[in-house]
Specification:
The complex is a heterodimer of chains A (115) and B (123). Chain A has 115 residues and is α/β, with parallel strands linked by helices. Chain A has a single domain, classed as DsrEFH-like (Hypothetical Protein Ychn, Chain: A, 3-Layer(aba) Sandwich), CATH 3.40.1260.10. Chain B has 123 residues and is of the alpha/beta class. Chain B is built from 4 helices and 5 strands, in the order βαβαβαβαβ. In chain B, strands 4-3-2-1-5 form a 5-stranded parallel β-sheet, with helices on both faces. In chain B, strand 1, helix 1 and strand 2 form a beta-alpha-beta unit. Chain B is globular, with a radius of gyration of 14 Å. The chains are: A alpha/beta (115), B alpha/beta (123). At the A-B interface, helix 1 of A face helix 3 and helix 4 of B.
Chain lengths: 115, 123
C-alpha cells in the first residue's frame, strides 16, 4: 500500500442520527481511516448536525472521536442556526464554518465520502 | 492515449431499493469498456445486499449478484463485501455469490489511497 499521509480525506455527514444506519456506518469509515493514519476530517451539515446533539444511539462515539485521532471536526454554522441549535450544546467542540469556508474545505480534499 | 485511470467504487445503495446500485454496475461496465483500470468494488451499507446469490429475484428481473459476478470474472475485479455491514443485515458471509469475498473497511481505505478515483454510489 502506498503512503497514506499524502491524501486528504473528508467525510460529509448530512443525515440525522435516527433515520437509517448510514450515519453510524459513515463514522465506522472515519474510524477505520483514522486507524490507517489517514487523518480523516468530518463535516456535519444539513440534518447531520443533529448527530452532534445528545439523545441518540451513538453519542458516546461522537464524544470519543478525538480519542480515536479524529480531531478536525467541522460543522455548518448555517445548518445549526436554521435549526436553532446553540453551538454550546454540541457534544464536542466542532469548528463552525460558513458557506464560503465549506466550499474551500471541500475543494481542498482529494477524497470525499458520505452525503 | 493517456494511461488508464485507476478507479475503485464504493456501493452503498441497496440493489432492491435504489437506482444508484444499478448505476454503479453500469458505471463499472463502462469504465472497463473504456479501457480504464477498475481494481476493486467495495460493498458497504445496504449495498452488501448485492452479494446475496439469487436474492429472491423474479424470473424476469435482473439478478444483481450474477451481473457483478459476470463482470468480475471477465475483468478481474476484486468484489469486497464489508463483513460488519453484511452480518448486520443477516447475510450468510460463508455463502456469497461467485466472485465476491468478505473483507473489512480497511480495504475501502486502501482502495481510496491507491486508486486515482474512488467513486461512490449511495442512495
Amino acid at each position: 500500500m502506498s503512503d497514506s499521509s499524502d491524501k486528504s480525506l473528508l467525510i460529509l455527514c448530512r443525515r440525522a442520527p435516527g433515520g437509517s444506519a448510514q450515519p453510524r456506518e459513515l463514522l465506522d469509515i472515519a474510524l477505520t481511516a483514522a486507524a490507517f493514519d489517514c487523518a480523516p476530517q468530518l463535516l456535519f451539515a444539513d440534518d447531520g448536525v443533529c448527530q452532534l446533539l445528545p439523545g441518540h444511539d451513538f453519542t458516546g462515539l461522537i464524544e470519543a472521536l478525538p480519542v480515536y485521532g479524529i480531531e478536525r471536526v467541522f460543522v455548518d454554522a448555517q445548518a445549526l442556526a436554521r435549526r436553532g441549535i446553540d453551538p454550546a450544546r454540541l457534544l464536542l467542540p466542532a469548528t463552525p464554518l460558513d458557506a464560503a469556508e465549506i466550499a474551500d474545505l471541500l475543494d481542498a480534499q482529494q477524497l470525499l465520502l458520505g452525503g | 492515449m493517456s494511461p488508464p485511470l485507476h478507479i475503485a467504487l464504493l456501493v452503498e445503495a441497496s440493489p432492491h431499493s435504489h437506482r444508484a446500485a444499478t448505476t454503479a454496475l453500469r458505471f463499472a461496465r463502462a469504465a472497463v469498456a473504456a479501457g480504464q483500470r477498475l481494481s476493486r468494488v467495495f460493498f458497504f451499507g445496504d449495498g452488501v445486499l448485492a452479494a446475496r446469490p439469487h436474492a429472491g429475484e423474479v424470473a424476469d428481473e435482473p439478478d444483481p449478484a450474477a451481473q457483478w459476478s459476470a463482470l468480475a470474472a471477465e475483468s478481474d475485479i476484486d468484489l469486497v463485501v464489508c463483513v460488519a455491514a453484511a452480518q448486520r443485515r443477516g447475510i450468510d458471509t460463508a455463502a456469497l455469490a461467485e466472485g465476491f469475498r468478505i473483507g473489512g473497511l480497511g480495504q475501502l481505505i486502501e482502495a481510496g489511497i491507491d486508486a486515482d478515483r474512488l467513486v461512490s454510489f449511495g442512495d
